[in-house]
Batch of 2 targets.
Target 1
Amino acid sequence: MDKIVIKGGHPLFGTVKISGSKNSSLPIITSTLLTDNVLSLHNVPNLSDIRTLHKILASLGVKVSQKSLHTWEYQADTINSFTAAYDLVKTMRASFLVLGPLLTRFGECKVALPGGCAIGVRPVNFHLEALSLMGADIEIKDGYVYASTKSKRLKGAEITFSRVSVGATENTLMAATLAEGKTIIHNAAMEPEIDDLANCLVSMGADITGIGSNCLTINGVDSLHGATHSIIPDRIESITYAIAAAITRGRIDIIDTRVEHITSVIEVLKAMGVDIKEITGGFSCSGEGNNIKGIDIVTSPYPGFPTDAQAQIMALMLTAKGASNINETIFENRFMHVPEMQRMNGDIILTDAFSVKVMGSSELHGAPVMASDLRASAGLILAALAAKGESIIDRVYHLDRGYEDIETKLSSCGADIYRYKDTPKE
Ligand code: UD1
């Protein structure tokens, strides 16, 4: 397993270009299953999660071809399997997003239950309940979801999610595009990645209104066609580099990003004393002057503070003056990075499964630490950039799922970072 070695304690200065969004790319790539024409996508990040999805699509018979580093073409005109196997689905929960498109276009599919993961139980009941309301017969057997429709097509339905779910909104939205009649999704997730998916579906011929709101109305159409679409910038990557500037008390210009997608985080960073200015194509973020102070945050669905930025802001809070509190409301086990940050001399009190108190003014020291999930890895990288001495971050395959070229991007800003390669790259 690769490790990342960081000698921290230096301010970072430079410019970072943000890659395409992982969480947009995954559902949008999956939407190729809705048409037999070519879907051409630009700005797809070069990440292991994308390669995993490509393997799943190829196993179904989708033609996947790379046109340049970030441009891919997909064509699902020769689907010869309706089964997403456990071996592939277990490595990435977002693979479950093949369920809605396969079912709505072909009337049957078998998709492995993704199971739990490091950050929580993560059930899929909302996905299944919504598809059942649309007329799907669903059976769970031997770790697989068997879904089929008696009539040829799913039927439009009125669906109200009891809590906001990004994945369930995406699966339902994709399924509804080809269903017979109207589907209304109440309490839909409003993440920018949902808008990106909906906009791509509209360019493929879908009839969707309410994009950008928490109520999506979809009038099903008989078929969708090919399209060309460019993936939005990765907002969590933007936040991570903004915090890299703040935590090292340096300044980084973050470009090729969309500031309007990270308003809640920018507000928190400004309230902590981080200096943020809009620049062409993005923003400039600075922690110079060492005036960072503690704050209390609560994670919540968009437009609230994203759970995917919780580990990173925790790292910054460790270096702030005064205490901070974090209340994590999305996942019940998302503090796996706490003991690792404590190993780096971070002063954090775990209050319960959903809340921590970060004492601040911690003098972080480098240490060997272990990444437990994607965003926890990012939090540890940030803490290591601020810590005096050497940190060795193990299990960085988690990081490779969601951060393109992180060593190159950070070292271009002056970070002392290198990857210790333990095994040949895939
Ligand atoms: C997506 C993101 C992930 C992010 C999360 C929350 C992708 C690929 N992943 O994950 O990075 O952390 O949104 O912003 O886009 N839930 C249920 N039943 C369900 C579905 C969800 O109880 O059927 C619960 C989950 O356990 C969780 C909450 O709802 O507590 C929100 O989960 P959800 O929004 O579905 O997360 P994902 O789509 O898996």
Target 2
Amino acid sequence: MTSEYKGVAVVTGASSGIGALYAERLARRGHDLILVARSRDRLQALAQRISDETGRAVEVVVADLGDAADLARVEAQLSRDASLTMLVNNAGFGTFAPLLESDVGRMEAMIRLNVIALMRLTYAVAPGMAARGRGAIINISSIVSIAPELLNGVYGGSKAFVHAFSTSLNHELAPKGIRVQAVLPGATATDFWATGGLPVEHLPEGITMQAADMVDAALSGFDLGEVITIPALPDIEEWNAFEAARRSMSARLSRSLPASRYGIVTN
Ligand code: NAP
């Protein structure tokens, strides 16, 4: 056994990349695990390795979170589990195809996984965590949530949902003892890129982070109490200024009269 026992963490998309690293790091931090993805073999191999190395209990749940019946099965399991202390909503995929060249069915599947599954799993765990006054929800967003011009727009939109949803969840759930963090990785060296049609080796030099470094930085951000963590951003003051401008502006976004620049004469 490694650290003090910290309850059960669920990691979606744990069969590879960022999710597999979260699984390993969280076990070392003292969590038992529930690992969710479609690839049974990869999940079982990872579960075996992690439990051998850490002595933690690791359960494998094979599910296609884009499938309504599978998702409902996972939601039912998680909503009943009073030992849950953390949910890492990580499963997701992207694409580099421009809007007009991307298949709308594939775009909908992306929203089902990146948005609907993440939202429904959050609903499955949050009431129990709130009742217990303890828990953490880590949602993997992306830098495209604030820079949607960089990749496919539906992908950017899905990650903007994750960002905004997490900001609002934190606002509502922090007073109930639940930590919420949205992680905004930049390019990270995983299968994500090959799956999306652009092998990671084709990215410009100097912009790609190793997945282990990204996850370690994100967990440091979690320990620091960050709600939004941008592992690659060198100067946090840049983010703080952006966030301060947003918060200040939000007080002036809803008024009874249109702004004078529109020249509307009201009665
Ligand atoms: P990855 O290696 O391709 O991992 C994706 C994970 O999601 C896999 O474990 C995959 O497992 C699982 N998954 C995919 N479809 C699923 C489904 N329908 N149901 C259940 N699980 C499913 O890529 P990654 O980079 O680690 O991606 C993890 C998250 O990071 C994603 O949300 C991605 O958008 C985000 N992200 C990645 C980058 C990057 O540059 N890599 C940057 C920003 C954000 P199975 O195939 O076994 O189901």
